[in-house]
Specification:
2 domains, alpha+beta
Length: about 425
C-alpha cells in the first residue's frame, strides 16, 4: 500500500495471469533472451580476459618490465645504472643486457633476436633458468661461445644440444676481399620453452661477454632491464631512473614494447562484446513485442484507470515499471548464470572432453592447454548496465502508446 500507484499496478501486471497465454510466452522468451545474452557475454569476456592475462604473464616471465638504454651507442656506465635502479624501492631487480637482430644458420637459416645476459644476474629480471627443458643456463660461461635457443627456434634450425649454429650480424668488417658480414660459430648448450611463440621461435641467449667480443662493444651494453614489484609503474620508474642518471637515455616499458599486441587483444575483446550484445538486443526486441501486445490486451484496464484519475504519465510509468522488471529479472538470472558458468568452465570443458573422447585444446597445437578465465567485476557491472539500459529503452514506445489510449475509444466495445 506504500508503493506509488504506477509501481503497484506494474508489479500486479507482472504477477497476474493473463488471458492471452501467448503474451506470457513472449515475456518469458524476453527474460530468457536477456539472461542468455548476459550469460554468454560474461563468460566470453571472462575467457578472453583470461587468455589476455595468460599471454601477458608468460610474456613478462621472459621480458623486462622496463628498460633504460643509451641513444644509438653502447651504454658504458651500466653498473652505475644498475646500482641506481636497485636503490629504488620500487625495483625488484636489474641486470644489463645486449640485444641484436641476427641470422642464425644450422641445417636451415632463421632470423632471431640474440640476447646477451649475465647468467648469474638473469634470475633477477626473468625466469629463463626455470624454463630450460634441456641443458642449463649456467652453461653460458664467458669464452665458451655457447648459446641457448628457444624450442621452436631450435626445431626450425634443425639443431639440438651439442650442435653448432653460425651467427651472422648486420655489422661488416673490412678484409682484403672487401666488406664481409660478421660471423661467429656458437655451440648449442641448452633449449628453453617459454610457452610464448615470440620467444620460443625468435630468441637466442648467449653470455654477455661473448656477444660483446663478437660485436666489438668493449664493456658497453645495450641497456639495463628492470623488474618491478608493481609492473604498472614501469614507465614512471624507468623515466625516473633515466632522469636521475642524467644525459639522453631511451626509456621503454612492457606496454609500449608490446603495444600492437595488447591493442589487438583489446580490439578483439571489444568487437566480441559488441557482437554478443546483439543477443541481449534480441531479448529486448522480444520485450517490445510483448509490451505492445500487453498494451493492446489491457486497453479496457487503461481506460478505467484513466477515468479514475490516473494521468497519461502515470499510465506510461505502469508499463515502464512492468517492462523494466522483466529486464531486471533477465539480467539478474544472466549475471548469476554467467558467474556460475565462468567459475565452472574448466570442469565443464573436461567433462565434454571425457564424454566426446577428444582433447579440445591439444598440447601439440596450443601453447595454452587449459581454458583460463578472469572474471572482472568491471565487465560484469558494465554488461548488467547495458542489459538494463536496453530493457528500459525497449519499454518506452509501448508505454508511450499506452499513455495515448483514449478511454472512450477503448471502452466503446466493452
Amino acid at each position: 500500500m506504500f508503493k506509488p500507484i504506477p509501481v503497484a499496478i506494474g508489479l500486479r501486471y507482472l504477477r497476474a495471469k493473463r488471458r492471452n497465454g501467448f503474451i506470457s510466452f513472449i515475456s518469458l522468451a524476453s527474460i530468457a533472451g536477456i539472461a542468455l545474452g548476459v550469460t554468454a557475454l560474461i563468460t566470453t569476456l571472462a575467457v578472453m580476459s583470461g587468455f589476455q592475462r595468460e599471454i601477458r604473464d608468460r610474456m613478462l616471465q621472459m621480458a623486462a618490465h622496463a628498460t633504460v638504454s643509451a641513444y644509438g651507442e653502447p651504454l658504458t656506465d651500466w653498473q652505475r645504472a644498475v646500482d641506481a635502479a636497485i636503490a629504488d624501492k620500487r625495483v625488484a631487480g636489474a641486470a644489463p643486457y645486449i640485444e641484436k637482430e641476427t641470422l642464425l644458420s644450422g641445417a636451415r637459416n632463421q632470423p632471431a633476436m640474440v640476447r646477451g645476459v649475465l647468467p648469474a644476474e638473469e634470475g633477477k629480471v626473468s625466469v629463463l633458468a626455470e624454463k630450460m627443458v634441456q641443458g642449463k643456463l649456467d652453461s653460458l660461461t664467458p669464452g665458451s661461445y655457447n648459446i641457448v635457443l628457444g624450442k621452436e627456434l631450435a626445431a626450425w634450425l634443425g639443431v639440438g644440444v651439442g650442435d653448432s649454429v653460425v651467427m651472422m650480424t648486420s655489422d661488416f668488417r673490412s678484409t682484403p676481399m672487401g666488406a664481409l658480414p660478421q660471423l661467429k660459430r656458437f655451440t648449442v648448450s641448452g633449449i628453453f620453452e617459454a610457452g610464448y611463440n615470440e620467444f620460443d621461435k625468435g630468441l637466442a641467449v648467449v653470455n654477455l661477454r661473448d656477444i660483446q667480443r663478437v660485436l666489438r662493444m668493449g664493456d658497453g651494453v645495450t641497456g639495463v632491464r628492470l623488474r618491478l614489484h608493481d609492473m604498472d609503474l614501469a614507465w614512471d620508474v624507468a623515466r625516473d631512473l633515466a632522469i636521475g642518471l642524467g644525459g639522453p637515455y631511451n626509456v621503454s616499458d612492457w606496454t609500449s614494447d608490446n603495444a600492437n599486441m595488447f591493442r589487438a587483444l583489446k580490439m578483439e575483446k571489444t568487437i566480441m562484446a559488441i557482437l554478443l550484445s546483439l543477443i541481449i538486443a534480441m531479448g529486448a526486441f522480444n520485450l517490445v513485442s510483448s509490451q505492445v501486445m500487453l498494451v493492446t490486451d489491457k486497453q479496457a484496464d487503461i481506460a478505467i484507470l484513466r477515468t479514475l484519475g490516473l494521468t497519461p504519465r502515470g499510465v506510461m510509468q505502469v508499463f515502464v515499471v512492468q517492462g523494466t522488471l522483466i529486464g531486471v529479472i533477465g539480467t539478474v538470472l544472466g549475471v548469476i548464470g554467467g558467474i556460475v558458468l565462468t567459475l565452472n568452465l574448466e570442469h565443464i570443458l573436461k567433462a565434454i572432453e571425457k564424454v566426446l573422447g577428444v582433447q579440445l585444446l591439444p598440447e601439440d597445437v596450443y601453447y595454452i592447454t587449459g581454458l583460463p578465465t578472469d572474471l572482472q567485476s568491471g565487465d560484469v557491472v558494465a554488461i548488467a548496465a547495458v542489459a538494463l539500459a536496453m530493457a528500459f529503452v525497449a519499454t518506452i514506445y509501448p508505454a508511450w502508446r499506452a499513455a495515448r489510449t483514449a478511454p472512450a475509444e477503448a471502452l466503446r466495445y466493452e
